[in-house]
Amino acid sequence: MSHRSRHRSTGGFTIVEVLVVVAIIALLAVILLPSLVKARQMSQISVCLTNFHHIGVGMVAYAQAYRGWMPAGPADQLYWSRIYQINVPVYSEELQEGGDWRPILGYPWQYGGRRALWQYLEDEDRNPLPEKLVRPLTGFVHRGAGLDTPTPEFACPADKGLDYWDRAEARLFPDGTRTGAWDKAGLGRRPVHVLTGNSYYLHLGRNSGRSDYPEWEVRRFRKRPGEVFFAYEAVLEYDRLFYRPTISPVFPSPPIRRSGWHGQAQSYTILYLDTHAEYKFFKNMFGGNLAGPGYYLLNYRYVIDYYR
């Protein structure tokens, strides 16, 4: 019997070949990673704009059902405001009808979304009070939603929370106590829509312009709803206020270019009065005065009766 010698090939890779393959993969990752991050950001922006469009359409539907009024907040958490000709606001905790009385929210997130996980409401003894009523816009945007029903239309997919909420020292009272919002440690590390039930705020502050309540500007811009925005992602509320921290009145510190939730500096999603939404870059945010060619910021109290 004859025996044949057979040559067997090992079929393995040399260390040099392995290193070359690893280097190629690493190079491709470096080249493609920014594109993948950018694509993810654009996808989240698209979702955010779609959410805002649904909110805007829901507000129009709400106004049609409630004699032209847009939503304010749960009935047990509203107060009422009346603005006289001299633009001095007068407030009431009791229901007021007729004249120029308008319902006003106490917090910018109360108009829609799910019940807040963070108990920001308190009784006289500072005990937490959970919300008891479904927020008014929720059912118009998310049909059949209850108090704790997940409402993705009110949740920004890029919501990273607000680190400003963890800066509690300025809220300390002389007796050492703090407001309920600041008794909880680490709020800023949790998404806003988890804590408050809503990633998108209505604007309850001053109008863009030279005075707090410029009636002539309100009348002017109410006629151009495609230029008036009154809601935005929550992070803009804090970025515009902390845009230029002041060290001293004489030597103010330079502007801080903050990045919104979607990663681009001074760029945020906003909702206009005609229900269209936009991802916008704000060149100048000094003093929170957000106004420029084609856009103008109005307090929600001035547009709440826009469809009447």
What does this structure look like?
- This protein has 308 residues and is α+β, with helices and mostly antiparallel strands.
- It has one domain.
- The chain has 5 helices and 9 strands; from the N terminus they run H-E-E-E-H-H-E-H-E-H-E-E-E-E.
- The strands form 2 sheets. Strands 4, 5, 6, 7, 8 and 9 form a 6-stranded mixed beta sheet that branches. A 3-stranded antiparallel beta sheet has the order 2-1-3, with no helix packed on it.
- Strand 1 and strand 2 form a beta hairpin.
- The termini are far apart.
- About 4% of the residues have low confidence.
Question: How do the strands and helices of this protein lay out in sequence?
Answer:
Layout: H1 15-65, E1 79-83, E2 89-92, E3 101-104, H2 138-141, H3 192-195, E4 200-202, H4 215-222, E5 228-233, H5 234-239, E6 267-272, E7 277-281, E8 291-292, E9 295-297
Parallel strand pairs: 5-9
Antiparallel strand pairs: 1-2, 1-3, 4-5, 5-6, 6-7, 8-9
Please summarize what this structure is.
With 308 residues, the chain is α+β, with helices and mostly antiparallel strands. It contains 5 helices and 9 strands, in the order H-E-E-E-H-H-E-H-E-H-E-E-E-E.
Q: Tell me how many strands there are.
A: 9
Q: What percent of residues are in strands?
A: 5-15%
Calculate the mean pLDDT score and round it. Answer: 77
Major beta-sheet overview: 6 strands, mixed
Terminal residue distance: 106 Å
From the spread of the alpha carbons, the general shape counts as elongated
What distinguishing features does this structure have?
5 helices; 6-stranded mixed β-sheet; 308 residues; 3-stranded antiparallel β-sheet; alpha+beta
